[in-house]
Amino acid sequence: MHPYDVAIIGGGPAGLAAGIYAARAALQTILLEKGMPGGLAASTELIENYPGFTDGVSGPELMMQMYAQATRFGLKVLSSNVESIIPDNGLFKLKTDDDEIKTKTVILATGAQPRTIGVPGENEFHGRGVSYCATCDGAFFKDKAVAVIGGGDAAVEEALYLTKFARRVHVIHRRDELRAAKILQRRAMDNPKINFQWSRVVKSITGDQTVEKVLLKNVKNGATQNLDVDGVFVYVGTRPVSELVSGLIDIDSNGYIITDEEMRTSIPGLFAAGDIRQKLLRQVVTAVADGAIAAVSAEKHIDNL
């Protein structure tokens, strides 16, 4: 079997954008995604800052449109988990859970996953009150009280979303001011359903069959308090899904892949794009740009083989 020109690992905004550009350039391109295409963007209710949408666009809708666009250009999408990447005489072998694929270039776009807070009860109540996706699970908490942990854009956006269902949303933040964009802060401050628990961290999550309480600690004076909630939504950042290339290419101390501005990694022919990459801003718009650049760089690499 002839090798593919480009194999893209990951089907979020970066992977789909790379697929659009590579397939449109008439490169034999395959995208491997172990879950549903769309990545974290597909679980975002409303994306307001993606250019071209005056009133914003839902994450699932935007990702479905990207997927349809990529496959229209001939992108082959395979539901498969890549277990290893092996450089092989100028090519790459991708071992999946049920096959082996050869390719001239690889674009790694596996993105990032939500970080956990690592407290007692978090794992035990995952799916029984603890969630990392308000869009997925918010409707289960109609007329209930929930806690949102975090103070960045994602935390505040999801807290605002949860006010559609919950009667009370407690935003728990270790600092005494938010890190979120000013426009989001204003919306949250003006929403009567949102209550801020400043300078506090969660020490444990408890309950019987489902979440019933969180134990909070004041980081300034050490005082503790129990807060009655039915759900806990965690938004304390993300971690890169880079285990696949650990020890293979250069990554930073946080696990993000180091690339140049052409998305090239430390191994020729292996590119990285999107949230997995070491960079300033991780947004859909920058992931899409990364994917486009990676595809063009892959094409240049193939031309020089």
Explain what you see.
With 305 residues, this protein is of the alpha/beta class. It has 2 domains: 4-113 and 238-303, FAD/NAD(P)-binding domain, CATH 3.50.50; 116-234, 3-Layer(bba) Sandwich (FAD/NAD(P)-binding domain). It has 6 helices and 17 strands. The protein has helices spanning 13-24, 59-72, 134-137, 153-162, 182-190, 284-303; strands at residues 4-9, 29-33, 76-79, 82-88, 91-96, 100-108, 112-114, 130-131, 145-149, 168-172, 194-197, 200-207, 211-218, 224-228, 231-234, 238-240, 270-272. Strands 1, 2, 3, 4, 5, 6 and 17 form a 7-stranded mixed sheet that branches. β1, α1 and β2 (29-33) form a beta-alpha-beta unit. The longest helix is centred in the last third of the chain and has 20 residues, at 284-303. The radius of gyration is 21 Å and the shape is elongated.
